[in-house]
Design a protein that fits this description.
Strand order of the largest sheet: 2-1-5-3-4
Number of domains: 1
Structural class: alpha+beta
Distance between the termini: 18 Å
Radius of gyration: 13 Å
Strand content: 25-35%
Order of helices and strands: EEEEHHE
Helix content: 10-25%
Shape: globular
Largest sheet: 5 strands, antiparallel
Length: about 80
């Protein structure tokens, strides 16, 4: 799998995949809409592809739960563009 930039979070995901279906994000240069779920501390987040995110949001009923989810954009990074730790 390749690395992706989450635009709004300004975060690079290494070996990114959807937490629900385990599928990868789009490799198209324009990327794809993705969803981030924050649970508790900032280090505990889950990422979802557009299809799974739409399905999840159709089942979320409370406004408090809905606020934990944020839409973002996952853009693939070209080989060699990932920042070094």
């Amino acid at each position: 799998m390749q690395d992706f930039l989450l635009v709004n979070r300004v975060e690079v995901l290494s070996q990114a995949g959807c937490s629900a279906c385990s599928g990868g994000f789009s490799n198209e240069a324009v990327g794809e809409k993705a969803m981030v779920l924050g649970v508790g501390n900032p280090d505990r987040v889950y990422f979802f592809c557009h299809s799974c995110a739409d399905n999840i949001m159709s089942h979320v009923e409370s406004e408090a739960s809905r606020k934990r989810y944020e839409w973002d954009w996952a853009v693939p990074l070209l080989a060699g563009q990932s920042p070094k730790a």
